[in-house]
Amino acid sequence: MFSTFGHLFRVTTWGESHGPALGCTVDGCPAGLPLDLDAVGVEMARRRPGQSKLVTPRKERDEVQVLSGLFEGRTTGTPISMVVWNGDVDSSKYEKWKQTYRPSHGDYTYEKKYGFRDWRGGGRASARETAARVAAGAVARQWLAHEFGVDVIAWVDAVAGMQAAVDSDAVSRQDVEAHPTRCPDPAVAETMAAAIQAARVDRDSLGGVVGCVARHVPAGWGEPVFAKAEALLALGMLSLPAAKGFESGSGFAGTLMRGSEHNDPFVLVDGEVQTTSNHSGGIQAGISNGMPITMRVAFKPVATLARPQRTVTSDGREVEMVMKGRHDPCVLPRAVPLVEAMTALVLADLALMQRRQG
Amino acid sequence: MFSTFGHLFRVTTWGESHGPALGCTVDGCPAGLPLDLDAVGVEMARRRPGQSKLVTPRKERDEVQVLSGLFEGRTTGTPISMVVWNGDVDSSKYEKWKQTYRPSHGDYTYEKKYGFRDWRGGGRASARETAARVAAGAVARQWLAHEFGVDVIAWVDAVAGMQAAVDSDAVSRQDVEAHPTRCPDPAVAETMAAAIQAARVDRDSLGGVVGCVARHVPAGWGEPVFAKAEALLALGMLSLPAAKGFESGSGFAGTLMRGSEHNDPFVLVDGEVQTTSNHSGGIQAGISNGMPITMRVAFKPVATLARPQRTVTSDGREVEMVMKGRHDPCVLPRAVPLVEAMTALVLADLALMQRRQG
Amino acid sequence: MFSTFGHLFRVTTWGESHGPALGCTVDGCPAGLPLDLDAVGVEMARRRPGQSKLVTPRKERDEVQVLSGLFEGRTTGTPISMVVWNGDVDSSKYEKWKQTYRPSHGDYTYEKKYGFRDWRGGGRASARETAARVAAGAVARQWLAHEFGVDVIAWVDAVAGMQAAVDSDAVSRQDVEAHPTRCPDPAVAETMAAAIQAARVDRDSLGGVVGCVARHVPAGWGEPVFAKAEALLALGMLSLPAAKGFESGSGFAGTLMRGSEHNDPFVLVDGEVQTTSNHSGGIQAGISNGMPITMRVAFKPVATLARPQRTVTSDGREVEMVMKGRHDPCVLPRAVPLVEAMTALVLADLALMQRRQG
Amino acid sequence: MFSTFGHLFRVTTWGESHGPALGCTVDGCPAGLPLDLDAVGVEMARRRPGQSKLVTPRKERDEVQVLSGLFEGRTTGTPISMVVWNGDVDSSKYEKWKQTYRPSHGDYTYEKKYGFRDWRGGGRASARETAARVAAGAVARQWLAHEFGVDVIAWVDAVAGMQAAVDSDAVSRQDVEAHPTRCPDPAVAETMAAAIQAARVDRDSLGGVVGCVARHVPAGWGEPVFAKAEALLALGMLSLPAAKGFESGSGFAGTLMRGSEHNDPFVLVDGEVQTTSNHSGGIQAGISNGMPITMRVAFKPVATLARPQRTVTSDGREVEMVMKGRHDPCVLPRAVPLVEAMTALVLADLALMQRRQG
Known about the structure:
homotetramer; alpha+beta; Chorismate synthase, AroC fold; 5-stranded antiparallel sheet; 9 helices
């Protein structure tokens, strides 16, 4: 619990934004997986700020150092410890506001919870913690691909109400990476980019939705009744910073349908059971049915703005604050690897649970 | 994991739809709580089918028998075992279809997972399992009220797109119970009722959304970074049958706002820190901030229909099936106590986690 | 935690000595096991008081009622709920002493922990709770035998210093059951029986040691570094009432040997790796090596005596107490099925953990 | 599970003997503890090989680097990541034997479990992993002292049958550290030292017993029925390398007593409930009673010898092996800080569990 995610494929993350390092321990990855560290590095780079003019400019190198659990390039079955050094961080701009609760950040709630807080760069509540998740998720993703041929692809599905049209059966990593917004609908991607630039100029931020699909998941993954596939995916997604909503398959839109439309008819295709529609999003009664697993995750506009805001201080003053520096007007493109990482972690966990059946 | 929910306030449920009984064990409820068994019974009655002409007609008495953990009316700190006897169940109508995968039910996925399945009334995948959750949730709810004055209220917020207007700060249990739909907006409630009756006539089903608020939750509940309050609520809600979506605070609608609108300004009210808006839904960085905790849960139209449907059998035939008998065209009213139960279980768990801080 | 044992093969027990019932839920037993309920009944009978003049006379029928998780005689993969009704219990002899802390019982510690206690028959601290473990252990034992051919045999190895000579490679259930003491060394068994009768006359109690072997456990079970096979066995055994010691393989006696004597040389027998001695007790670095797993568990003389004892009361008086009624002068014979049950539960858990490796 | 110990005060360790580093993450330590890093260093030094001519000569510096969870010298409530760099390790002497199963090591069992193994210095099975436990235990120990005044002291109680006489009520850290054997009975300590030197000359190894006491533990710690204080202590101790036995309070010797001798009479001392004897070892029904918690842990003679030994190889040859290099003839002195660390981790965990009661 707390800083550990997963039951059998487990990751424990640690680290603060402005501490010396952050990292994670992956415990439970089966032995014998040839781990491609370059591929891990690619995922880290996708999450990293400063990839394009669209995203936050902090220069993070985010190289992953593996300290255990590998021998001659393969996982040994023992815990894989991964560290990312924070490099030089400058906490001085935070010092001025160390008594001030930034609106809609964790400043106030951490202080109520723990009695005091590490005010440097958001401390543990910083989105920087997710770098460790991406590293762990990259291991899970490789194991899923190696063992089962599962692939997981996420994309920016909407920004500020601009909705992309994406075919989840066909979308590829290449489609997603083709545009800095990570929206695989080129026309909408351009509109999104313009809106993001406008928000930057306004020193404001935009929210949106990330879509995700996991293909080639075998039927039978997911545990009744509390560790349902959808429930664990929801847990993982809502644990991401700024996430405020999750839907699986038809989701909220499915509430507008009648059962006779929503039910997915079973058919036989080359002797295999399939469904002709996929409103279930690949999950029925919490268990995968072999169809693509689909979901969407809502992210609010991030709380960090470069505009003046009204708030209070820990010593009981009402103040106006404005934190200098450049900001990231839209985290959606960088949320794409996070959604993929959490999806991979959940699926790897469910795969190991299903192995209990022998 | 699996059939256990919670970390410190834990419930393990067991039982199948047509077995002799179902029940749960609540482990971790602190000692000394005077348990009101009548109040538990009220919650059970709210979940029970056949409460009104709007809901499923199966006559379930659903009396809870407490077998342990109580002494002279108070909890002892040891596990509370609760049993609900299933009474006489008639599995004969299921026998005919025991080789047939009902569309969008768990028949196919359970069989892929376990190799075979209890086909009587849906077995473990039946929504009847939730009776055990309601019993456990009733204990959690009483403990939260007794210790902290927390109250949890859910309501039907939408059916088939008919959206109610509900003030989450003011809505009461009495408002919710005033109409068989459990929608506290009287005008919309009537429209919903008519739509549900029409769906019944069509032997079809409708989906919708349940809203929920938890008031008087102290600031500081919720655990970084994976056991965030929102994440555990999402886990609990997506573990409910037919749930396909969850949103906290502003949710999906919040993605349409700019950060400058979405951020909740802090102010001092009688020396207490509050926010002037509550787009965060009472949770910031995964931790409660003392404002009302708000959420919405999407439920698809239930899969059980009285209409002919296309499907396949376990021995590889494509067939049309129609299961005789009355059905429940809309589970939303009965989902209200389920959402409350899961909310109470999550909050009780978080309360105990926070006690670690001393 | 708390009232749940195991990670993947999990049992949650509940119930008090003088409540209406006690029981357990087994969650995680793989689907498809044909469960022999008569064999479960045999284990229950072995634990039951009043089997012979050597043991406690309380008449407990201890029939197990299975309420879920079985379909057509096989496990379904869902939780198996088992209940044992307590029948008519008479708490009146306890009422007189409800303010008195019985020496070396849980009366005082439960009251310090929870603020009050169920004083009827020891409440949750009663050894009667172990009936639920025996039921769960019987399921685990059947699964281990069915899947792997593992057999688990325990016996009374010593009473009050009278030490039996038992060949753990050859001892059979029949050998153990041949004498009411459950000591398979006939000469020592007779001496033990006489000592137990003498202790009964003295209204006193005797302690002793239970030995146990698990044969045909495949190599590879046990998890580095905290869920080592020995560590989980120790956890299980020390969770039994009156257990005060555990040793694996050579145990405390092994501390008298030199490493050159203690190390178990590897040899090839018909191409299979074996060891010529088994001081390791079948476990090396926490993982089974394919040799028989051996252990011993120390049980103190039970605290319930029919003699006057000095103690204090909850309202601060020093008193002498003597609790009327017959007592069980030596629980060792009845501890045999408990040690077997915990061993089976641990091994089933480890077997499922190892399945993660695929 | 696996590489995580504890429920609420949790430590996850990682690292191999000859990898770049090893370490741990402590999750759950309450916020606000002023952490004395020098005191952590003292514990690390006590575990370190090469402290005296009695112990293994590998030069390990074992400085702990704290990477997270501290702010201005105090714990923040978030995970504390600690790393110990391995420095330069020479794996060449192991390369020659990489196909050879060292007797009574984990070589064979790891290979059966995982399919292959890191043969450098024992990999994950090396006792070097315990350095991470000592670091974590040092945090737990400081928290226990700071919050409750608990102190934990272990000592070498026996080596190869030479039994010390130690008063667990009075023994101090200073007494233990006064002799390189860490045996606080000076006469026996000298005899032990001579025996250890003789074993070194013989290139052999000796086993023994570590005693431990935890004083000032409040009554009420320990959880019925599976997370009993004794059970968790047994789990922790049997997870230590080379540990083969555990006893609590009177332990195996207690099986020789009658109940009337063994029961600990309650008395009032200055209005406080105490017992006149402490055969229970401070724990009754699994819960602390306020008296000193006492235990003993048996360690076999370590498997690493400098003598020729008979064994087999992974490609099916029977061979004789002798591994060159100096060895540690008796790990008992270095096991002392390990037993203290595990005791502190268990007690911190139980303390947090008890806080649930409010």
